[in-house]
Amino acid sequence: MSTLDEKISQLQEIIDSAKHIVFFTGAGVSTDSGIPDFRSQDGLYHLKYKYPPEEIVSHHFFVQNPEEFWEFYKDKMLNLDAEPNLTHKFMAECEKAGKSLGVVTQNIDGLHQKAGSEKVYELHGSVLRNYCTRCGQFYSAEYIKNSSGIPVCEKDGASIKPDVVLYEEGLSDPVIRGAIAAIRSADVLIVLGTSLVVYPAAGLINYFSGKHLVLINRDVTPYDSNADLLIQASFSDVFPKLHV
Ligand code: CNA
């Protein structure tokens, strides 16, 4: 059984020899930036709400209970002061160095782009984009955060919807196609900070047929046995020891 340091050295070797890395990320990469994930011990699913969070962030709930949806959303999903952490920055540096084809993310917080990543496939959309459901007028996340109650369009009074894929909604075809193409072209896929239980996103890693599948996560995932290199650790114990 390798120690954590040995595994980090193996990861460094894989990164050094990689030509086309793709990172596949989840909410866990943003917990060091102060944004809670869903399923960790201190994640949103362990907080006590009147409704389970899975239900609040679903399409039917958004339509039927907009007041409760927006209260939860503004309070828990709009973390507009959050800054990218070392893990986001490492991925951005890999892209700048020409080593990475980009990031496929389930995150909706925009922190990969804030860290400098340019090629980001946002499978579940972004809290930074919001549109009027009638006229399509764009609204910023700040507009949503500062609105009281249910945010509505200034032009026609219709409701606004975040460009976030809620449960029961489909993913964008062009984004999925781009993500699959990137994963197929990668020689190294590094999967990190995701419990890999949300589909169809999690299934995209099955398109990888490159050399090394690396999985870095604090908790177990259903794909652990598929990994060529499995690092079960906190990112703060891994990324400060890596270089591009
Ligand atoms: P998840 O199911 O909450 O899993 C997160 C995983 O990250 C867990 O298995 C943790 O063990 C692991 N993890 C958390 N912190 C660390 C750390 N510091 N070091 C190492 N591992 C860590 O989240 P998924 O992304 O798998 O679930 C998909 C959902 C979550 C998507 O629909 C997202 O939109 C949604 N989400 C996104 C955000 C965000 O954008 N930051 C926040 C909360 C939820």
Can you describe this structure in just a few lines?
This protein has helices at 4-17, 53-56, 59-64, 66-77, 86-96, 111-115, 141-146, 173-185, and strands spanning 21-25, 100-105, 120-122, 125-132, 138-139, 160-164, 188-192, 212-216, 229-231. With 244 residues, it is of the alpha/beta class.
Main sheet makeup: 6 strands, parallel
How many H/I helical runs? 8
For the termini, the CA-CA separation is 26 Å
Q: What's the overall average pLDDT, rounded?
A: 95
What is the H/E string?
HEHHHHEHEEEHEHEEE
**Fraction of residues in helix:** 25-40%
Number of strands: 9
Bound molecule types = carba-nicotinamide-adenine-dinucleotide
Structural class category: alpha/beta
Strand order of the largest sheet: 3-2-1-7-8-9
Identify the overall geometry: globular
Comma- or semicolon-separated keywords:
244 residues, alpha/beta, six-stranded parallel β-sheet, 8 helices, 29% helix, binds carba-nicotinamide-adenine-dinucleotide
Textual characterization of the structure:
The protein is of the alpha/beta class and 244 residues long. The chain has helices at 4-17, 53-56, 59-64, 66-77, 86-96, 111-115, 141-146, 173-185, and strands at residues 21-25, 100-105, 120-122, 125-132, 138-139, 160-164, 188-192, 212-216, 229-231. The strands form two sheets. The protein has a six-stranded parallel sheet, sandwiched between helices. A hairpin with a 5-residue loop joins strand 4 (125-132) and strand 5 (138-139). The protein is globular. Bound molecules: carba-nicotinamide-adenine-dinucleotide. The site of carba-nicotinamide-adenine-dinucleotide has 26 residues, from loops.
